[in-house]
Write a structure and sequence with these properties.
The chain is mainly α and 257 residues long. The protein has one domain. It contains eleven helices and no strands. Helix 2 runs antiparallel to helix 4 and helix 7 packs antiparallel against helix 10. The two termini are 37 Å apart.
């Protein structure tokens, strides 16, 4: 009986990418966790103790979802983009393209590994936060759902960036020049309801607002926008990424030359 997917190919790609992560634990896992821990120390413990509550939530606890999302987005994009860029750089992408492996299996392998790393990192940051700030999770299953959906969506986005990039410097352009500013301006450290009315409307054009707001709702039951809208916006972006990837493999964009 023939399986609908080449499970052996998916497993090989996935295990190779995960092995690379465990070979570089300091860079892949320890560094992001330590960096986020510094945010908890500075903003949560030091500054947070001198700030009032937001929506009835202690400031140190309020910023936890935003900080997790900040790391999750950047690591998802970076892991997936670097994972597919390296075969292009080394020239082994041609062996992959000529193998009896469909683009669906390639995407599942690379994106699955990148998302797994990001979810692991998010869980470690969540555990680290407990050392500095007390918090509660009102909706554990939706929280996990948001975590997985966001990791997969932005790993797909990172996969697109990795194919588009034709140099190592381009791998950093989108994460540093676009993703990080949008995350900081998306309500990581504040509620957009604290902004003047005009800037509240402007903030709604920032897609990261919906991610952080939905994720924060899963923790504390409060959000700047409806959780249903947050999920819908994330799914729409995921579908757009899937369509772009399908077009890339159909046309061979940046793969065959």
């Amino acid at each position: 009986m023939t399986l609908p997917l080449n499970v052996h190919a998916i497993r090989a790609i996935y295990r190779f990418e995960m092995a690379r992560t465990f070979r570089t634990l300091m860079q892949s896992i320890a560094s992001p966790v330590l960096s986020t821990a510094l945010y908890f120390i500075v903003f949560g413990a030091a500054i947070g103790s001198r700030m009032g509550a937001i929506d009835g939530i202690n400031y140190g606890a309020f910023i936890i979802p935003g900080l997790i999302m900040l790391s999750l987005l950047s690591e998802s994009v970076s892991n997936a983009s670097f994972g597919i860029y390296m075969p292009k750089f080394a020239g082994t992408i041609y062996e992959l393209l000529s193998a009896p492996v469909s683009y669906v299996e390639v995407v599942i392998g690379y994106v699955g590994a990148a998302a797994s790393k990001s979810i692991l990192l998010g869980c470690l940051i969540l555990a680290t936060a407990r050392l500095f700030v007390p918090y509660s999770i009102a909706h554990p299953l939706p929280m996990l759902g948001f975590l997985v959906l966001t990791a997969v969506t932005f790993s797909l986005f990172g996969f697109i960036i990795g194919i588009w990039a034709d140099g190592f410097e381009k791998l950093q352009i989108i994460p540093l020049m676009v993703m990080t500013p949008l995350t900081f301006l998306g309500g990581s450290f504040y509620s957009i309801n604290m902004l003047p009315p005009f800037w509240q409307k402007v903030a709604l054009f920032n897609p990261v607002v919906y991610l952080i707001s939905g994720f924060r709702w899963s923790f504390y039951g409060v959000s700047d926008v409806s959780p249903a809208v947050s999920i819908a916006m994330t799914i729409v972006f995921l579908l757009i990424c899937l369509l772009v990837i399908r077009w890339i493999f159909k046309t061979g964009y940046r793969l065959r030359n």
